[in-house]
């Protein structure tokens, strides 16, 4: 299994935050790179990102006891985790693996693996930001967990204990201390927790666009098309066939097409249990309130993020696949939680959005070399951690493509775990 020689050409499929970061990283290692995507960089899932480098989000979505919540997920279409009835038959195999991952021992193992990976996320972003001049798109004000009730606050004690074990620093806040940090918050909150190590992007779409411009300035090509099939020579990909009739000769491929990666993976011999977490949000251009840092309304599963284009309020998870129409009642429900938390919030002219987070049932992304074709690399399935892990994923893909070795930290995220 020989590495790809530097100066050879690699195709990256996907122009979201993961794909563009991978393309930039490969350029720094001497490769010639083309990005293939029918959409402009940053205009799909990356556009509506909540913006957080979420180093504290070390837990899988499926946790012990979640199985008993499935009836509620089906009954409440506006709940924090919901399933569309019509999608249940198709979702069932994924859902079964999802529930198995939530058992105590598997979930504890996954938590440790995610924590180890997330521990590198900001340092990796920082390297790229300095190199590309995009530091101005990040703020360092930390992240607030705001608890409406004493019960919610006390029930979170175990999670915070686990975060402590994994080296995540935080400060517990009384109601008054919470309001000192964010005076616009409703004084009815019980308490909060501040995680100082969290940064956030003030414009995730612009971040991807700026990185894409840097990639092009360095000689990279962005081809506006879809990859539809591949040509092979001696067990390695040698050609990428595009739906515009073009054929691209290549020495390697990185698949970073987010929620659309499953179909392409199947053409490479893998049947991966990839599905989507639909995310909804509303961005308010003139909110009339001042918020300094992202705030997670814990009991409501809603995130409020201050950005340069306004205040973004979103969150929660809907499992409904790629084809069902959007249910913007979810965005409206999240917006009402934001209004409750920020009583002076002006809701006028909000722009609703829905996007597809690529989701694996064990909440672990695939960051991996292919066992079938040694010049194929996978970088998808990051769920709600796409922006967070983009630079780290790119570094690991760069390491794999440059050497015969898989970095130790990438081993738990191999695609072979589904073979």
Automatic annotation (TrEMBL):
Keywords: Oxidoreductase
Domain FAD dependent oxidoreductase: 10-399
Keyword Lipid biosynthesis: no
Keyword presence, Isomerase: no
Origin: domain of life: Bacteria
InterPro entries: FAD-dep_OxRdtase (IPR006076), FAD/NAD-bd_sf (IPR036188)
One Pfam entry name: DAO
PANTHER family (alphabetical): GLYCINE OXIDASE, SARCOSINE DEHYDROGENASE-RELATED
Protein name: FAD dependent oxidoreductase domain-containing protein
Species this chain originates from: Rhizobium nepotum 39/7
């Amino acid at each position: 299994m020989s590495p790809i020689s530097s100066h050879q050409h690699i195709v990256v499929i996907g122009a979201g935050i993961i794909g563009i970061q991978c393309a930039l990283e490969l350029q720094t290692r001497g490769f010639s790179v083309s990005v293939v995507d029918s959409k402009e960089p940053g205009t799909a899932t990356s556009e509506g990102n909540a913006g957080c480098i979420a180093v504290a989000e070390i837990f899988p979505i499926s946790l012990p006891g979640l199985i008993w919540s499935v009836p509620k997920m089906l009954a409440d279409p506006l709940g924090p985790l919901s399933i569309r009835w019509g999608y249940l038959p198709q979702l069932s195999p994924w859902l079964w693996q999802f529930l198995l991952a939530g058992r105590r021992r598997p979930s504890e193992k996954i938590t440790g693996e995610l924590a180890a990976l997330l521990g590198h996320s900001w340092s990796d972003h920082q390297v790229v930001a300095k190199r590309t001049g995009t530091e101005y798109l990040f703020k360092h004000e930390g992240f607030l967990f705001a608890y409406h009730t004493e019960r919610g606050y006390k029930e979170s004690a175990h999670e915070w204990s686990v975060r402590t074990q994994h080296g995540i620093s935080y400060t517990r806040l009384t109601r008054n201390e919470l309001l000192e940090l964010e005076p616009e918050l409703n004084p009815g909150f019980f308490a909060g927790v501040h995680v100082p190590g969290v940064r956030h992007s003030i414009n995730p779409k612009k971040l991807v666009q700026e990185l894409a411009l840097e990639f092009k300035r360095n000689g990279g090509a962005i081809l506006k098309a879809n990859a539809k099939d591949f040509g092979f020579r001696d067990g390695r990909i040698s050609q990428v066939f595009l739906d515009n009739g073009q054929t691209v000769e290549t020495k390697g491929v990185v698949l970073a097409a987010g929620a659309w990666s499953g179909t392409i993976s199947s053409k490479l011999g893998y049947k991966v249990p990839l599905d989507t977490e639909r995310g909804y949000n509303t961005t308010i251009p003139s909110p009339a309130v001042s918020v300094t840092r992202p705030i997670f309304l814990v009991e409501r599963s809603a995130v409020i993020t201050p950005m340069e284009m306004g205040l973004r309020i979103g969150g929660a998870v809907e499992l409904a696949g790629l084809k069902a129409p959007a249910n913007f009642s979810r965005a409206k429900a999240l917006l009402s939680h934001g209004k409750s938390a920020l009583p002076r919030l002006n809701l006028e002219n909000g722009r609703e959005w829905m996007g597809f987070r690529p989701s694996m049932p064990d909440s672990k992304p695939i960051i991996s070399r292919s066992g079938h074709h040694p010049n194929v690399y996978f970088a998808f399935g990051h769920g709600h951690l796409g922006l967070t892990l983009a630079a780290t994923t790119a570094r690991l893909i760069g390491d794999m493509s440059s050497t015969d070795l898989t970095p130790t930290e990438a081993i738990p995220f191999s695609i072979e775990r589904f073979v």
